[in-house]
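Bumping with the actual sequence this time:
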Amino acid sequence: NLMKKFIYSLLFVGLATAAQTQVSDPEPLSFMFSPNPVHDWMHLEVSMEVELQLIDIRGEMVLEASGFRAGDLDMSRLPQGIYFLKISTPNQVQTARIVRLSYSNE
């Protein structure tokens, strides 16, 4: 399974907070997100339109978006845990580790 290979490769590099693979694109892919850890909403801005995937620790995709550039992601319905944010263009892929914390009354 491609997703499990993706997660395995992330684990292999030691669960780096951000990993980058870049071929040649005229503009380098960059992104910014906050807060991390997140409770309910996470703001994300990307330097160009991208494919966006949020993957849980088991390798299951819990969110997917095409043509994403900026916005707020609702994380409130997700269980607390570690997630991987995969941001990709046809020639570049970047990933980041996201920690979702719940409030004490959840």
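The tokens above came from a reply further down the thread. Residues 81 and 87 are 19 Å apart (CA to CA).
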